[in-house]
Structures are given as structure tokens and as C-alpha cells.
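Usage

Read records sequentially. Each one opens with the input sequence:
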Amino acid sequence: MAAKRKPKYDWDAESIRALRHHLDMSQQQMSEELGIRQQTISDWELGYHQPRGGMAHLLTIVAERANFKYRTANRARPMISNPELDLTLYTK
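and closes with the structure output:
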């Protein structure tokens, strides 16, 4: 029997920033934990680039282990699990 595939997650600028805030980390701290440059985190959060492949998968693992309520590719917005998060990012 084949293993059930998890839904794909689309990491965008808002969701990466929300995950980082949920983890209560600075860009520098998150970059050190992931083994990447701080500039990469900044570029993701500014929407210049998106994580791909293994890094996107690693972010998903981190989010799941941190009980971060994220959205899959077919949902419109991240679910905010930290009420102290700056909600101005999520209003339109």
C-alpha cells in the first residue's frame, strides 16, 4: 500500500515571516538554524525568491514540529497561531 502524500505547501513571503515570528526568531537566528545566509531569509520575506526543493520541505518539517498552522497550496491565507503576531501583514 502506498504512503499517503502530504499536501504541497506553497511557502510565500508572508508565511515565511509568520513562521519565523511563531518560532520567535530573528532572521539571523533562523538562518543559522537552517544553515543558510541571513540574506536568503530576507529575500524570501521580501518576495524576491521562494524556497524550493529540500529547503521548502525542511521549512514544512520545522513548521509541523513547531505546531505552526500553515496553509497548503489550495488555501488562501496562513492560519495565525500566534495572537501577538503583527496582523497588518494579513489584511487586505
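Summary fields computed downstream for this record:
- Residues 25 and 33 are 10 Å apart (CA to CA).
- Helices lie at 13-22, 27-34, 38-46, 53-65.
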